[in-house]
Each structure stands twice: as C-alpha cells, then as structure tokens.
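Hi R.,

Here's the chain you asked about this morning:
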Amino acid sequence: MLSRVVENVYWLARYLERAENTARLISVNANHFLMADLDNPGSLISSLKMARESARTLRDVLPTDAWEVLNQFYLEFSEELPTASSRRARFNFLKRIVLTSETLTGVLDGTMNRNDAYTFAMLGRSLERADMTSRIADVRSAQLLIAPASAPPQLGPFDSIQWMSVLKSLSGYEMYRLSRRTRVSRRDALEFVLRDVQFPRACLYCLLAIEGHLGALPRSAEVQEPVGEACRFLREALLGELDQRGLHELIDRLQLHLNAVHDSIARTYFQAPAGARADGTWVRDTGVPGTLPLFAGGS
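And here is the predicted structure, written out as tokens:
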C-alpha cells in the first residue's frame, strides 16, 4: 500500500478525532473561534473539511458507508453553521458532531479490513485522542476553583462537582465510578484521564494502543522508542503533588512527547528513503534495483 494512502488514512482519523474533541471543548468554553474560523486549523470547520478531503481521496480504501456519513454530515454542518453558533442551538449541534464522529468510528471499526490502512487509522485516532484528552484536562481544570489544603470541609462536595464536569466532558464519569468506586477528587480524576489503562480516552491507554498497533508494521523500532518514552513519562509523573501550574507544565511536556511520536511515524512511513526513485523503485546498497519498501514513498 502506498505511503500517501496510509498517510491520508492516518490524517483522516486524526481530523475526525480532532473534530469530536473540539466539539467537547466548545461545549464547555463556547468559543466561536473554535467552531467556524477556517483560518484556525484546529477549528471544527477546518477539521471536518480536511477529514472530508482525506476521505474523498480514499474512496477505494474506505467503506462506502463511512464516506456517505461524513460527506452528508459535512454538507449539513456547513449549511447549519451560521445558526448553530448561537447559544441556543449550540449544545444540540455540538452533541450531533460527537455522535456523528462516534458513528463514523463504529462504521470503520465494524467494516474495514484489518489491513495497513486500518492500522494507520488506529495510529492516527489514538495519537490525536491522547493529545486532545490532555488538552481537555488542561483547559477544563484551569477553569476550576482549586481549593487549598486548608479549605473547610464544606467545599469538598463542590470540588467533586467540578471534577465531575471534567470527566463528563470526556464521557468518562460513569467509567470513573465503575473503576474507582469513590468520591470524585482532583487527584483521582487526573489519574483516570491521564494514565488509566482501561478507559479508552485516557492518554496512557491511547499510547499503549499505539504500541500494540505498531507491532503489525515493518520498521517500527524507531517509532516504538518515543512511544515508550511517553509511557514512562506518564507512569512516573507525580500527579498528586501537582498544583495548576505544575499540571499545565506536565501537559506541555506530554504534548512534546506526543509530537515526537508523530514525527517518528511521519519520518518512518510517510517520507521516501534517500534511495527512492521517481519511478517507484529504490536502489539497494548493492546497486540492484528492487521493490520500493512498504510505505516508503510512491505515488
């Protein structure tokens, strides 16, 4: 399979995940810049536009149902955006985006062959999900009142309600309760969304998923290294000792690790090697032309 194909699948999955999680962010921040600004590459309209463009080039790789769902929703989204940005319509509109993204995820999971295209879709989705989960945790926690250790006991329930909203913005509240079976607290909520190994939106879960999917690919050793470093960073973080500034710095460092994972994926699978020829062949060290290595360049 050509590298441009798997790169488009990878970015299709990332843009879909970005759109869904941007909708989650907007639902609590009410930021119009994140909805309709085409000049902002992280806005909903930009993410959906790029996802649709990626899917359009992949018509012979993707299930027809996935293309039809995405194309139809993009057309409806573009038409309804001027009115949906009003406060009254925003909540239901954003909920539709999340549900449509989850529908597309289900279509791809239920109908795609477990081939290289699927593997790269999972890499893109997992990496984007880890990135966006960390951003949501950072942004949402920064909005909360951080009670000092000397705060009176009556503030405890209020603190729990605040962190419940963080979990709910990630659709994780019920799963948190099943996992922790205790009152919601800052420390436990951060532990859950950053390094739980069962919740599929937790950052560590996503990194472990990337690690697993890489096992199906050739030449993955270079990518496994930054993934392992990101996992170690999360496992060793002293979450219970972080104030808000410390949490923000930790999220910044985590995103540098995630960027390193992406850079390694792109360098290994999306760029032609030095010996690649324009006609789709490459030259081995012996000088004998051979078949282009899997995912390495091509057109």
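One quick note: DSSP finds twelve helices and two strands in the chain.

Cheers,
M.
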